[in-house]
Write a structure and sequence with these properties.
Layout (H helix, E strand, L loop, with lengths): L3 E3 L3 E7 L4 H6 L8 E7 L2 H14 L3 E7 L15 E7 L2 H17 L3 E3 L7 E7 L4 H7 L7 E6 L1 H14 L3 E6 L8 E6 L2 H20 L5
Antiparallel strand pairs: 1-6, 2-3, 3-5, 4-5, 6-7, 7-8, 8-10, 9-10
């Protein structure tokens, strides 16, 4: 079964070259990080992946990243989507480079996959060959290690994670028990790049079977 990609859309981006001290305090910025870059997008997990890429391409750190409850279909406004991310850096140029890197991942690399014709049933089985500072910290691994980012609807996510963990020598480094803010679930798996890829493939294959025969034991 060939799954069709579901790409996220960047809805809004903005830069604050020199953030106000009160906001800097709330975001717990270091003294060297005075510039902010903000981005919203229609799919949260792609947003988190994109922010990790930003930390690899520029001297920035992720200072705020949140999913919105119930997802993009119930967004608070036309530019809200499903996710907001904020990065901080020492200069506007570094922040601009980070946002550009995030946009590039969203537009050309990371994507969900549709299990049905209208895309209402989907999964995310994305392998990152070399993590940046952001996802490395979440997964508790060294920066630059591989990672499988696996997300699906609730039952499918649990079934798929089990298959992924059994398929390769990987560790469950972060667990997202359903329901998440967007009513999905999943986790971050770590291991060698080939093991992460094998785990992602097993995750996808197992969920395809569920989609084909949801009431079969």
């Amino acid at each position: 079964m060939e799954l069709q990609p579901i790409k996220a859309e960047v809805l809004a981006v903005r830069m604050i070259p020199n953030v106000d001290a009160a906001l800097a305090k709330q975001l717990q910025l270091t003294s060297g990080h005075r510039s902010l870059g903000m981005i919203t997008t229609t799919i949260d997990d792609i947003g988190y992946t994109a922010l990790d890429e930003a930390t690899k391409r520029a001297e920035v750190e992720v200072v705020y990243a949140r999913s919105f409850y119930a997802g993009a279909a119930h967004a608070s406004g036309p530019l809200s989507g499903e996710f907001i991310g904020i990065i901080a850096g020492p200069t506007p140029d570094e922040v601009e480079s980070g946002i550009e890197a995030a946009q590039n991942i969203i537009e050309h690399d990371a994507h969900f996959e549709a299990l049905n014709d209208d895309g209402s049933h989907a999964l995310y089985a994305h392998v990152i060959a070399r993590t940046g500072a952001y996802l490395s910290k979440i997964a508790g691994i060294n920066e630059g290690e591989p990672l499988a980012y696996l997300i699906a609807p609730p039952l499918e996510a649990m079934y798929g994670l089990d298959a992924a963990l059994k398929a390769a020598d990987v560790q469950l480094s972060a667990f997202y028990g359903p329901p998440s803010e967007t009513n999905f679930g999943g986790g971050l798996l770590t291991g060698t790049q080939s093991a992460c890829q094998a785990a992602a493939n097993a995750f996808r294959d197992s969920i395809i079977r569920v989609a084909r025969q949801p009431l079969t034991w």
